[in-house]
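Bug #77: duplicate submission created two jobs. Keeping one. Sequence:
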Amino acid sequence: QVQLVESGGGLVQAGGSLRLSCAASGRTFSSYTMGWFRQAPGKEREFVAGIRRSGSSTAYADSVKDRFAISRDNAKNTVYLQMNSLKPEDTAVYYCATDLISWPEKFGSWGQGTQVTVSS
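Kept job's structure:
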């Protein structure tokens, strides 16, 4: 069974940057498409970004396009989310995801999440 552990969240001022990491274990990481999602208080979880197994194809939500970048290091079994030009509306718990159901926005397994708070 896959295990996903997110890290890198924290408090940042608007306009700042953070890089989230998600370490995966329990399977051959390079064989799986990965994604990032987020859930703000009182809202449903939403898709943020996805990356195919080789890293050759990525997808982003319109709200983060041109500000966020997803990447992966298959040698380290880790997927990253570089977040730049952060806005208060980016405040949420960010979750790593795997077990793709439908590209790019439906996944079946999740990590525990890491909190990102952007102050104005």
